[in-house]
Amino acid sequence: MQLAITSPRLRRPVGRRLVAALIGVGLCLASAAAITPPRAEAALAYGPYTCKSGYVWREAFYGDKVCVTPADRDAVRSENANAWWRTSNTGNPRWCLSGYVWREARPTDYVCVPPASRDRERSNNGAAVQRLEDASQTPQGAVYARFPYTQTGYYVYASGSGLSPYGKASFWQVTTTSSRWAPQVIGSRYADGNGYIADGYVAHLPCNRYATAPTAIVVLDERSGTVTTAGSTWAIRHCG
Fold first, then answer.
1. Using CA atoms, how far apart are residues 51 and 133, in angstroms rounded to an integer?
2. pTM of the model
3. d(CA 205, CA 190)
4. CA-to-CA distance for 160 and 147, rounded, in angstroms?
5. Residue 240: what pLDDT?
6. pLDDT mean over 65-69
7. How far is CA 210 from each of CA 56, 186, 236, rounded to the nearest angstrom?
8. What is the pLDDT of residues 140-163, one digit of tens each?
């Protein structure tokens, strides 16, 4: 008979296969949901180190993406071009002639410049987080944060490596509610001679039940201006 497929005997196995297939699809969707990032970030025009409008990459050395004013980048290019006649022929690294100092845009930046230029780049390094379009999109660095919490808020502890020896690492919070807040500095730690910080306290932050995305903690190496992410957490919404 052409309609034999509609008999209960034949319908039952087909139904079981269908149910099994639907369960399989459901499990796949659940698995996909489990690994989906908590929020989809808008693509930045020039990658994670895209500068805010009005700023450009400094380019004091290869890979330098600290955001500075165009005038400061021009000054850096001029300093690089004129470094040779401001440098003595002695020392390793070579010393600067009288009236000049190492620029120190990073610890190994030995371009000789007037003292005011070194002060300028220290200031630029210290402002690096605030000049990024979205600091929370910077890549994970070698410093990691953890987030124990209590009824009154949560703690930030951090440890890791890859920092400038004896340098200051400042920690910044990036919170999103109805809009993304400007980064806020929450604490700092100092690295040892190997660029390492042991696990320790950074800050205690109050809850914010209006957060619409995980709060990101970013780290600024103030001796090099390097910005990386230390981690993110929903713990900020734990309000007792």
1. 5
2. 0.80
3. 20
4. 15
5. 65
6. 98
7. 33, 19, 9
8. 999 999 998 777 778 999 999 999
How far, in whole angstroms, is CA 171 from its chain's centroid? 10
What letters, b where the CB count within 10 A reaches 16 and e where it falls short, cover 28-43?
eeeeeeeeeeeeeeee
Residue 83, token pair as written in the block: 């470094």
Determine the CATH number of domain 136-237. 2.60.40
Sequence ranges of the domains in the chain:
56-126, 136-237
Count Cα atoms within 13 angstroms, Cβ side, for 150.
Answer: 6
Question: Does the pLDDT value for residue 19 go beyond 80?
Answer: no
Query: Contacts by 207-211 with C-beta closer than 8 Å and gap 24+?
Result: 207/152, 207/153, 207/154, 207/236, 207/237, 207/238, 207/239, 207/240, 208/175, 208/177, 208/236, 208/237, 209/237, 209/239, 210/177, 210/178, 211/175, 211/176, 211/177, 211/236, 211/237
Alpha helices (runs of H) in the chain, residue ranges in sequence order? 8-35, 70-82, 115-126
Token code pair at residue 11? 């319908």
**pLDDT value at residue 43:** 83
Per-residue model confidence (pLDDT) at position 1? 38
Q: Which 3 state secondary structure label does DSSP give 68?
A: strand
Q: Which amino acid is at 188?
A: S
Q: What is the mean pLDDT of the chain?
A: 84
Is 58 exposed, middle or buried (CB count within 10 Å of its CB: 0-12, 13-18, 19+)? buried
- Return the structure tokens found at 99: 């009236």
In the chain, DSSP finds a helix count (H) and a strand count (E) of 3, 12
